[in-house]
Amino acid sequence: MRAMVLDSAARLTERNLPIPEPGPRQVLVRVIACGVCRTDLHIRDAELHPPRLPLVLGHEVVGTVEAGGSEASRFAAGARVGIPWLGSTCGVCEFCRRGAENLCDQARFTGFHIDGGYAEFVVADERYCHTIPARYGDVQAAPLLCAGLIGFRALRAAGDPKRIGLYGFGASAHIIAQIAKGQGREVFAFTRSGDTEGQKFALSLGATWAGGSDQSPPEPLDAAMIFAPVGSLVPAALKAVRKGGSVVCAGIHMSDIPSFPYSILWEERVLRSVANLTRADAHEFLKLAPQIPIRTTVQEFALEDAEEALDRLRAGRIEGAAVLRVRQP
Ligand SMILES: [Zn+2]
Ligand SMILES: [Zn+2]
Fold it and tell me: Cα(199) to centroid of ligand 2, in Å?
């Protein structure tokens, strides 16, 4: 099979690899599309260090089941499935036992511990795969699997804000803006300074206001979510939220947060992060997405153009989400 492999030289190269064999509880999935997530970019740029190289990235995988291992029975051959970041958990640690499998001590992540979807085939534990809602095309569905569902987890962590700020209007924010709007919230979008295209895009998705992240919102926010990996946005967001408001950092990596005066955290403002996802999050989100209905804006790339997709993501030149189209349906 063809795969884009991250090797020790920290770049993706096209290689021919053997098609993987599914283990007992795994399914072999023929990949149709795979979303390009900012986490992939952090791994590619050696800001996050996977436990082994070479590695196949990609954890927003949409494909069809080709075959199952000896104990796999959940999906029939041909079934369309989605494979997200959470690849497996131990089921017995204190986090797993209390419903926080996203924090499992032994969690294994797709495209990090396990080879992911920048390839023609992938194997995945069937218990961590999800059925994709029928209304979505393969490419359109891919960004739901991380940008959408981890963003959804972050939105819930923000409480019940009437006015919510989204810092970094990329793959996640363009989905979360639609959910927040659907829930009757007012969305304030913050883009890179001077990114008028991004601001127009945010307004087209129903944002009440859009501006640069160096600007103050016209009204104090009840909560803010930070998707851009930029630590200086933390004090900026704290300044933008009212008393008792919360700031949620939704990414896996961020540059250092500069020191800031206690006065901007004082008065019961809350600063927190969100990590990974649970299967329950995915279940709930994939049910909600077609009801809103969320529409994803995607920019398609061929599998062999994965590096270009990552370059554009780094430069902020993707409207919505980048997705690798691995195979025509
Ligand atoms: Zn566990
Ligand atoms: Zn991701």
Answer: 23
Distance in angstroms (rounded) separating the CA atoms of residues 135 and 290: 7
Give the ligand at the shortest distance from the Cα of 57. 2
- Short-list 235, 159, 172, CA closest to 202: 172
User: Whole-prediction pTM value?
Assistant: 0.96
C-alpha dist (Å) from residue 203 to 13, 228, 291, 310: 38, 18, 21, 25
Ligand 1 centroid, distance to 249 Cα (angstroms): 23
Per-residue pLDDT of the chain (329 residues; tens, 9 = 90+): 999 999 987 789 999 999 999 999 999 999 999 999 999 999 999 999 999 999 999 999 999 999 999 999 999 999 999 999 999 999 999 999 999 999 999 999 999 999 999 999 999 999 999 999 999 999 999 999 999 999 999 999 999 999 999 999 999 999 999 999 999 999 999 999 999 999 999 999 999 999 999 999 999 999 999 999 999 999 999 999 999 999 999 999 999 999 999 999 999 999 999 999 999 999 999 999 999 999 999 999 999 999 999 999 999 999 999 999 999 86
